[in-house]
Every structure is written in C-alpha cells, then in structure tokens.
Amino acid sequence: MQKRNYLLPVMMLAIFETIAVTLWLTKNNIFYLFNFSYIGISISLGMFLFIREYKHARRVVQLLVGLYMLIYLGLICNENMQIEGFWYYLFTGVFEAATIHYAVAKIFGPLFFGRGWCGYACWTAMVLDFLPYKTPAQPRKKIGWIRYVTFAASFIFVAALFLAKVGNLERIMFWAFIIGNAAYYGVGIALAFAFKDNRAFCKYICPITVFLKPMSYYSVIRVTCDKDKCISCGKCKRVCPMNVDVTDNSRKRENGTECILCMECVRNCPKKAL
Ligand code: SF4
Ligand code: SF4
Ligand code: SF4
Questions:
Q1: Which of 9, 161, 173, 208 is within CB 3.0–4.6 Å of 44 for a Cys-Cys bond?
Q2: What's the mean pLDDT when you consider all of the chain?
Q3: What is the predicted pLDDT for the residue at 2?
Q4: In whole angstroms, what is the distance from residue 68 CA to residue 23 CA?
Q5: Cα four-point dihedral sign 157, 158, 160, 164
Q6: How far is the CA of 229 from the centre of ligand 2 (A)?
Q7: Which tens digit of pLDDT belongs to each residue from 68-113?
Q8: What is the pTM of this model?
Q9: Residue nearest to ligand 2 atom 8, measured at CA
Q10: pLDDT class for 165, splitting at 50, 70, 90?
Q11: Residue 30: Cβ within 10 Å count
Q12: Taking a C-beta distance cutoff of 8 angstroms, is the pair 216, 257 a contact?
C-alpha cells in the first residue's frame, strides 16, 4: 500500500476541520467543533478502510454518521434535521444546525462531493441498505415526479404552521421529526419490497433529491471510466444500486445525478477501469 493513497482521507479530514474551526469561532459555539470533527473523522476513517479494501467501509461510516444524526442530534438534542426542520429554521431566520447541515451536506457540498451524503450519512438509507435488494431487480420506473410532490408538501406544511401562527412550534417540529422519520422508514421499506429495490425511496420519493440532483450534476468528485481499459462487460451497471451508466464519462450520463459514490462499480470492475 503506497503512502500517497492516504492523501484523500487526510484532505477530507482537513476540509471538515476547517469547517469545524471556522464555525466554532464565527458562531462562538463549541458544538460545531465537535459536530464537524466527528463527521470528518468518521468519513476519513471510512475512506481509510476503503483504501485498505475493507468490504464494509461505507457501512461503517453510514452507521457512525447516521446514528449520530438520528439519535444524538434528532432525538437527544431535539434538532429537526429533516427537510421540514430546514424550512422551519429558514422561516425563523436562524442560521443554526439544521440550516448549516443542509447548506453543507445537501446544497453546496454536493458541488464538491456529489451525493456522498446519500451513500455515507443518511439515516434513512442506513436502514434501507440492510434490506435484501442491494441491486435493483426491476427496470427503473418513471415516477420520479413524486419527489416534487413531497418537496412541496413539506414546504406547505411548515409555511401553514407559520401563517396560522401556531404556538409551541419547537415541540411540533420535534414530533414532525419523529413522525416524518417513521413515515420515511415505513414507505421506504414497503417500496423496497414492492419494487425489489432497496433504494426505491431515494429514486422516487425523497424530497431532498430536489436539492441533491441538480447540485451533484456539477460534482468535482465523480467516478469516471478509463475507456482504454474497459471491455464493456456491463458489470458496473449491474451492481450499481442507482442504475448509473458509469461507463459514459459525460455529465449527462444516464442517471448521473443519482450516483451515491458507493464505489460498488469500482470494487467490481474486473479491469480496474473505474
Ligand atoms: S435520496 Fe434521500 S433518503 Fe435516499 S439517501 Fe439521499 S437523502 Fe437519504
Ligand atoms: S465493469 Fe469495468 S470493464 Fe466492465 S463495463 Fe464496467 S468499467 Fe468496463
Ligand atoms: S455503483 Fe458506482 S455509479 Fe453506481 S452509485 Fe455506486 S459509485 Fe455511483
């Protein structure tokens, strides 16, 4: 194993530490130092394990970050990190945890690391990825428009609470987080079995993809194919949970904005062309 292979995890840790220290000092809140350091260490550890060819590297990160977000931030700190929480803090004009989380992980971060959030941190997918349909058994369905309905519904729900001047909004947002998560898990698991596809919820329902898809189109980090090595065996597409045509290097490749950087294609390519 060559030393230079470890540059990427070190760089990732440095990026997160920069964010951690900057937010800690500018917001005068040590929570940000702890929060972004923890996430940076988890992601860097996963990258380190991946370089060491540990099979479950991605799952380790997914559990470390996903459980931290769901249990510590969501249930213990009462921070609604779902899209309703984002709207809520946006309306109140508070640039705190949920808004910062969305800005970093789901809106501007994807310009750099694409849908890394979906592959390594999302607590919904953390559970869905335990289900048996790791690669889709059926062709993709043309029902992706549902994500716009759920996106609009989440916005209307929070806007209505503000317009109606409902009291005790913080408590309502906490329960919205619990009920919203339960609904995501219920619908996600049902869809996975109905479509024989663990990631069906991500492909058709998840409202956050309204942010993630267009931003990740420009992602700096993306899997590309060395055409000189590729023998067009098609294995990469068969193992891809998101139906991405990774052999096409253009940004307009089929389902290109669905790539969650899981690296299954890279691990399975017999010619190391990816
Ligand atoms: S698409 Fe939505 S549910 Fe799926 S991993 Fe991404 S954020 Fe999570
Ligand atoms: S698995 Fe590798 S060799 Fe086969 S089509 Fe994909 S990139 Fe080409
Ligand atoms: S298998 Fe490859 S192309 Fe498909 S989502 Fe994972 S990293 Fe992206």
A1: 9
A2: 90
A3: 46
A4: 19
A5: positive
A6: 8
A7: 989 998 888 888 888 888 898 888 877 667 788 888 888 898 998 8
A8: 0.90
A9: 230
A10: confident
A11: 11
A12: yes
Closest-lying ligand 3 atom to the alpha carbon of residue 246: 3
The answer for residues whose C-beta is within 8 angstroms of residue 102's C-beta and 6 or more apart is 86, 211
Residue 208's closest CA among 259, 260, 148? 148
Nearest ligand 1 atom, CA 106: 7
CA distances from 31 to 26, 77, 88, 183 (A): 12, 11, 20, 29
H/E run at residue 83: helix 83-92
Q: How far apart are CA 186 and CA 166, in angstroms?
A: 28
Q: Please give the Cα distance from 228 to 156 (Å, whole number).
A: 51
Range name among 101-105, 179-183, 257-261 with the lowest pLDDT average: 101-105
Note the ligand closest to the C-alpha atom of 62: 1
Q: Please, where in the chain does CATH 3.30.70.20 lie?
A: 222-274
Q: CATH topology for 222-274?
A: Alpha-Beta Plaits (3.30.70)
CA-nearest of 93, 76, 83, 63 to 31 is 76
Q: Which of 209, 210, 244, 261 is the best mutation target for the ligand 1 pocket, counting ligand atoms within 8 Å of the beta carbon and taking the most? A: 209
User: Taking the CB of residue 71, how many other CB atoms lie within 10 A of it?
Assistant: 12
In sequence order, what are the residues at sequence separation of 6 or more whose Cβ sits closer than 8 angstroms to the Cβ of residue 49? 56, 57, 60
